[in-house]
Write a sequence for this structure.
């Protein structure tokens, strides 16, 4: 029963998003390969999206889309928060473009005779 | 409450495949596992009442991102092959290398 | 060894920062005042059944315009990074031809997938989905064609034209809102109609179709650039 109380007390979306952010951070900090770092960034990005969206999670409410059956006033009392959804929607598309840009830098370094490991660029300080 | 438990199960799946994606030795395996993270995330989005975000995440996160990663990896491997060919051919400077 | 300690410390620090968010914030009981306002007024004012679409296209339309611009810049960056001039002629490899199954399936499916993408972005104000999702579906059709014929290239001029025209259409419809209605990107230039029919919600379907075409062309450009062998 205490497990149930624990689940009711936390926000499950925020919890899984936060753990995913930590997993991605571990990958970004500890892996030397550039492609692995890009994978870790995309895992971290999914986690951040979950954390943002967790603000709009309300138990027992449906998606913010009106169907023709119900009238507008009573339907709005059964819907979740649409604002974080609108923000995350665009963030996901941007995430793909940024990942592609990151990967094209990695490919460019590799085909230019460089190395895929970030350790080889240690001496190039600014 | 049932939805909360389902979200926690999907979250555990996400964390497990995220750890697998970071810890795996093979890059292809880690790319596919990060696609699995996105797929489980889209299930979570659907459960919490965000079908728009779930569609976007399923199409972009687990579809196109995986393809983009695999193309980039193929490009990088291609460069590797040319590199090693040059290294084989250039210093020896023998004519008629097999490849 | 030193690095491992630092990494562990950084992760523990972030965990402490994220812990209250995950375990103490809990779940809200009611949406905030702004969200309630959107939920009540969006169907009445704009005639859009999907409130998320109303926010993305109309209430926060300026955000979305900026986001499309960022997408364009990132695509241009990928294209500039991976030209053959930069990578040298050595980057051209020979590719294995696609199998019979893939080529036949591509011929059968391409039209259907493009039609599905157009369906998704035209019904963005009624059902889940919209310009971004529909654009990705169209890019998937392009990807299928690229896989079936690896030696072929996208018609670059057509892609650029679609992208430029849809971007210009987006801004032009937004400006119409500024002159004929209450502000930039206001969809009430056209009559809002009744909730649930395809021709409703003013210019929201038109704007989302422009976004869908633009996103589809840009993501196809990313795939084409990463595939390589571009002339």
């Amino acid at each position: 029963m205490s497990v149930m109380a624990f689940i009711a007390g936390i926000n499950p979306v925020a919890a899984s998003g936060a753990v995913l952010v930590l997993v991605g951070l571990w990958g970004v900090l500890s892996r030397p390969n550039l492609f692995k770092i890009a994978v870790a960034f995309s895992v971290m990005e999914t986690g951040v999206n979950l954390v943002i969206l967790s603000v709009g999670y309300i138990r027992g409410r449906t998606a913010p889309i009106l169907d023709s059956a119900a009238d507008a006033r009573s339907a709005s009392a059964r819907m979740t928060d649409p604002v974080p959804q609108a923000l995350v929607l665009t963030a996901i598309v941007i995430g793909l473009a940024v990942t592609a840009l990151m990967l094209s830098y990695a490919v460019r370094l590799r085909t230019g005779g460089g190395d895929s490991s970030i350790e080889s660029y240690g001496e190039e300080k600014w | 409450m049932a939805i909360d438990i389902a979200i926690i199960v999907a979250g555990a799946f996400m964390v497990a495949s995220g750890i697998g994606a970071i810890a795996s030795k093979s890059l292809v395996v880690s790319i596919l596992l990060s696609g699995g993270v996105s797929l489980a995330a889209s299930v979570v989005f659907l459960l919490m009442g965000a079908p728009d975000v779930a569609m976007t995440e399923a199409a972009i996160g687990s579809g196109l991102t995986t393809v983009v990663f695999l193309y980039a990896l193929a490009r990088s491997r291609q460069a590797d092959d040319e590199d090693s060919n040059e290294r084989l051919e250039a210093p020896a400077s023998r004519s008629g290398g097999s490849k | 060894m030193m690095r491992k300690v630092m990494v562990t410390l950084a992760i523990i620090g972030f965990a402490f920062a994220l812990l209250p968010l995950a375990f103490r914030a809990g779940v809200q009981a009611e949406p905030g005042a702004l969200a309630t306002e959107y939920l009540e007024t969006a169907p009445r004012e704009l005639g859009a059944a999907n409130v998320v679409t109303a926010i993305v296209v109309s209430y926060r339309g300026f955000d979305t315009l900026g986001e499309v611009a960022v997408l364009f810049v990132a695509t241009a960056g990928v294209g500039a990074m991976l030209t053959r001039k930069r990578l040298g002629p050595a980057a051209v490899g020979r590719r294995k031809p696609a199998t019979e199954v893939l080529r036949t399936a591509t011929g059968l499916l391409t039209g259907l997938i493009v039609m599905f993408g157009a369906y998704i972005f035209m019904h963005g104000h009624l059902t889940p989905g919209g310009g971004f999702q529909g654009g990705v579906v169209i890019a998937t059709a392009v990807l299928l064609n690229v896989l079936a014929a690896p030696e072929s290239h996208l018609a670059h001029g057509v892609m650029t034209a679609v992208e430029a025209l849809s971007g210009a259409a987006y801004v032009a419809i937004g400006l119409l809102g500024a002159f004929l209605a209450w502000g930039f990107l206001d969809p009430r230039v056209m009559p809002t109609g009744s909730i649930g029919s395809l021709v409703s919600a003013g210019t929201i379907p038109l704007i989302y179709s422009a976004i869908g075409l633009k996103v589809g062309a840009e993501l196809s450009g990313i795939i084409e650039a990463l595939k390589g062998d571009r002339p």
